[in-house]
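Progress report, Aim 2. The chain analyzed during this reporting quarter is listed below.
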Amino acid sequence: NVNPRLGDILQKLAPFLKMYGEYVKNFDRAMDMVNTCMQRSSPFKDVVQNIQKQEVCGNLTLQHHMLEPVQRIPRYELLLKDYLKKLPEEAPDRKDAEKSLELISTAANHSNAAIRKMEKMHKLLEVYERLGGEEDIVNPANELIKEGHIQKLSAKNGTAQDRYLFL
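Predicted structure tokens for the chain:
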């Protein structure tokens, strides 16, 4: 009550928030796996539903609880921004809170980058499937930049030929 502070605590914890990026990267796959298991296995579905009925779950599904970590970093960032708006300029916690916001924003960017990277990999996998799996393009170093129709002009007679290009 004498000297309430938040920024110094968040500074110490902020570096650990980057690990949420790994969780976010695998979130869609984990969610699909849970949904598939719920559909294919009645015992699994029963266990999950029994747990969800417990008061501690707050009437939320497993999927809702799985979504919480994905929303955590953006929520921290918004709360800290709001805290800083209301914190007087001369407050002792001001510099620590600003540094915490910087660190948490970095973690949020890391998490968002992980999401974008996975989305790009999913697109690359889709291209791979569309090509019939003949070309070995699925490589973490590869990235689908653009795709679309183009017109190839023949060098011999200048006629245009339709092509579909993956860059």
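Helices lie at 7-13, 20-40, 42-52, 62-86, 94-130. The first strand starts at residue 147 and ends at 153. These observations will guide the mutagenesis work planned for the next reporting period.
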